[in-house]
Specification:
single chain; mainly alpha
Length: 307
């Protein structure tokens, strides 16, 4: 291994790059997040579906609530990315750098590194995600039942006051589980795809390679996380203070969803999820790769480092 490859980006730099990349990507894809959550809540409990397709959901929001409502909950999504992506992606990349330094960066080492990052990120970001689900799904409720959160901090304050700490951590288990699965599906698949394309000589380490690797990563991410994402969304949308909550936990949500709506219901919202994951993943890694390049160019004076 050359001296160039031994030089690492400091771990404290990996984290802000990850967070900025996640927030930047989310600004572009938030409307698809909103449609995804609406689709996942549609037909809940065996009731008539609100939306037939993701396109119907998209047009219904514009028609019934206005175009601006496609960005409902954007403040919660930004905060979520600031916590979630900063921790999950920053820690994975920092750990991966150290693994590469010691020559232990193969798949068996990448998977637990990704799972560890996902665990801590999912735990710490749950309150922001509860606020995100509530705010994006609010428009589907009757006017008298809407929460009307002004912004993410208003949502966190009211949830805490009205439902306690338990309310802020509604759906903690499926959120953490999803984060662990997502980290492996997205970050490890991206790393593996990128290394395969470069090592086999199909592509150089450039933007084209990053985009192709991101497309593979986005599909793996969406397919692997959709079922747990549906359950998580439904659990987080319900009020934790309700005397008779619709679901008592993940397994209960799984059982009721499959029993009343069938197994395909676990992949509700897959198209908007993938439509969101593909561009978000591409933008996430393009931002990350280029911010890392700029850091090396202006601080390390070593832009050609292959990472």
């Amino acid at each position: 291994m050359s001296s160039k490859r031994k030089k690492l980006v400091p771990g404290y730099v990996r984290f802000p790059i990850a967070g900025i990349s996640g927030m930047g990507a989310t600004l572009f894809v938030h409307p698809l997040d909103l449609v995804r959550f609406r689709m996942q809540l549609s037909g809940e409990g065996g009731l008539a579906k609100d939306h037939r397709t993701w396109l119907h959901a998209f047009t219904s929001v514009i028609k019934n609530e206005g175009t601006f409502r496609l960005y409902a909950g954007i403040s919660a999504n930004i905060l979520h990315q600031a916590v979630y992506t900063t921790i999950r992606m920053g820690s994975f990349q920092a750990i991966l750098d150290q693994l590469r330094k010691s020559g232990h960066d193969s798949l068996p080492y990448q998977v637990p590194a990704a799972m560890a990052g996902g665990f801590f990120a999912g735990f710490l970001a749950t309150p922001a995600e509860v606020a995100l689900v509530r705010m994006t799904g609010d428009g589907r409720l009757p006017t008298s039942e809407r929460r009307g959160y002004k912004h993410v901090f208003d949502a966190l304050r009211r949830i805490s006051n009205e439902e306690g700490t338990k309310g802020l951590y509604t759906g903690l288990r499926p959120t953490v589980l999803r984060a662990m699965i997502a980290n492996v599906a997205q970050l490890v698949s991206y790393t593996q795809a990128k290394e395969f394309l470069i090592n086999k000589g199909y592509m150089e380490n450039n933007t084209k390679c990053h985009i192709v690797s991101s497309i593979v990563s986005g599909f793996m991410f969406a397919f692997a996380t959709c079922p747990i994402d549906v359950l998580k969304t439904r659990i987080q949308f319900m009020e934790s203070k309700t005397t008779t909550p619709l679901y008592s936990g993940v397994l209960d949500a799984l059982s009721k969803t499959v029993h009343k709506e069938g197994v395909p219901a676990l992949w509700k919202g897959f198209m908007p999820l993938y439509a969101r994951c593909a561009p978000h993943t591409i933008l996430l890694f393009l931002f990350s790769e280029n911010l890392t390049y700029l850091y090396r160019k202006y601080f390390d004076k070593n832009p050609g480092y292959d990472y």
